[in-house]
């Protein structure tokens, strides 16, 4: 069946993430009208350890959804672009609307059905508060590549794009402007945007002009930025023994700079995964990188480590915890090629390593100085 026939004859039935209207409207690029409908003998389940559901045939079950008419060939192409990259394909099926059967196009997970593990029953009401805003932000970046890159190439970076979408959601919150210039509508004008490199990380380049302090707009300039998602660092501190746990691992950045000692002494660190809060991410990373289950996390700072060249934003914490002699060891997620050694060191040695330059990464230095400022209070408490 050709696309034109689909546009004219059959509406689309959405029961998963595209039932979230703000997401569907980003995918289609315009406002959408929908009507309730349901699909018999099918159920929706979470894909295990992922952020979306899978539609599975299940006799006697029923899936609630919506019917939406494709208003143009562009609608069809945009839906195929968004769903096709993930291996979803449209099938014409009978769905129920007002107790009458209606032929509609339903996207099925052809690839995921054979390879993905099924989790618990999926519900839109459960998914929306955790992932809804992140998916909408991700879809804006995703659809910006419509007719620019093939769908498989875009979908291959879905998890990275979703993590960036989560970063966009966190960044959209109110920020203080007591001293700096308060940005307003029209203060930044982007004439063109390019993505010359995109794998786990990405590089983006923009042709941009911005408001000058005399009120005029700057000349158009080209600027590039490393696109890293929001991340966390956490330094476990034992106030009774007055010592911390730091980790030791190989880092590509120092090596590519030409540093003869590319192993770094750091706080525990990692990316905030989609659907996580910074605190949840810090606790997960502590288990993965140090085998520690942390409870109380104290915020140190939230900041851009290098805003001139990177979009990465960090949330740093100190965790008050028990650090016996057995707490140190070698950890890391094997599937991510991590090889991480933990060191138990006294507070005095921590500060000595900062002073000598052996600790030379910003989050660990910042956290060490925060701990120096608050150490007496924490030990008294």
Low-confidence stretches: 1-8
Work out the helix count: 11
**Number of DSSP E strands:** 17
CATH class of the largest domain: Alpha Beta
Please outline the major beta sheet: 8 strands, mixed
Percent range of helical residues: 25-40%
Number of domains: 3
Structural class comes to alpha+beta
Assess the beta-strand content as a share of residues. Answer: 25-35%
Q: How far apart lie the N and C ends?
A: 71 Å
Query: Order of helices and strands, N to C?
Result: HEHEEHEEHEHHHEEEEEHEEHEEEEHH
Shape: globular
Average pLDDT level: 92
What is the CATH architecture assignment of the largest domain?
Alpha-Beta Complex
Brief summary of the model shown:
This protein has helices spanning 3-9, 21-28, 73-84, 112-115, 124-143, 151-155, 158-171, 252-257, 278-290, 347-356, 362-380; strands at residues 12-14, 35-47, 53-68, 88-97, 100-109, 118-121, 188-198, 202-210, 221-227, 231-238, 243-250, 263-266, 268-271, 297-303, 314-320, 330-331, 340-346. It is of the alpha+beta class.
Could you explain the architecture of this structure?
This protein is of the alpha+beta class and 381 residues long. 31% of the residues lie in helices and 34% in strands. The chain contains eleven helices and 17 strands. It has helices at 3-9, 21-28, 73-84, 112-115, 124-143, 151-155, 158-171, 252-257, 278-290, 347-356, 362-380, and strands at residues 12-14, 35-47, 53-68, 88-97, 100-109, 118-121, 188-198, 202-210, 221-227, 231-238, 243-250, 263-266, 268-271, 297-303, 314-320, 330-331, 340-346. Mean pLDDT is 92; it is low at 1-8.
């Amino acid at each position: 069946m050709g696309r034109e026939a689909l546009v004219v004859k059959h509406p689309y039935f959405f029961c998963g993430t595209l039932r979230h209207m703000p997401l569907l409207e980003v995918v289609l690029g315009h406002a959408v009208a929908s009507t309730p409908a349901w699909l018999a003998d099918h159920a929706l389940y979470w894909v295990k350890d992922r952020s979306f559901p899978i539609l599975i045939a299940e006799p006697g079950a029923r899936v609630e959804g919506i019917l939406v008419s494709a208003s143009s060939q562009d609608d069809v192409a945009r839906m195929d672009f968004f769903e096709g990259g993930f291996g979803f394909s449209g099938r014409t099926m009978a769905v129920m609307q007002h107790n009458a059967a209606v032929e509609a196009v339903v996207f099925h997970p052809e690839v995921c059905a054979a390879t993905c593990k099924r989790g618990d029953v999926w519900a839109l009401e459960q998914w929306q508060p955790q992932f809804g805003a992140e998916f909408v932000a991700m879809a804006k970046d995703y659809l910006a590549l419509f007719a620019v890159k093939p769908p498989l190439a875009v979908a291959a970076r879905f998890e990275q794009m979703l993590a960036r979408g989560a970063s966009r959601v966190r960044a959209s919150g109110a920020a203080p402007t007591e001293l700096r210039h308060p940005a307003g509508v029209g203060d930044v004008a982007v004439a063109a945007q390019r993505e010359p490199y995109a794998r786990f990380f990405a590089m983006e380049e923009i042709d941009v002009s911005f408001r000058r302090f005399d009120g005029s707009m700057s000349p158009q300039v080209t600027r590039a930025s490393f696109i890293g998602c929001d991340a966390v660092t956490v330094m476990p501190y034992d106030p009774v023994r007055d010592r911390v746990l730091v980790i030791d691992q190989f880092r590509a950045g120092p090596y590519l700079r030409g540093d003869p000692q590319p192993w770094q002494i750091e706080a525990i660190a990692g990316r905030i995964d989609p659907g996580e809060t910074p605190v949840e991410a810090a606790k997960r990373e502590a288990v993965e990188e140090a085998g520690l289950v942390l409870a109380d996390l104290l915020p140190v700072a939230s900041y851009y480590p290098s805003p001139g060249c990177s979009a990465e934003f960090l949330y740093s914490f100190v965790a008050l915890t028990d650090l016996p002699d057995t707490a140190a060891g070698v950890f890391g997620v094997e599937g991510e090629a991590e090889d991480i050694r933990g060191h138990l060191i006294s507070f005095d040695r921590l500060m000595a390593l900062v002073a000598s330059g052996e600790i030379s990464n910003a989050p660990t230095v910042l956290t060490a100085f925060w701990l120096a400022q608050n150490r007496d209070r924490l030990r008294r408490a």
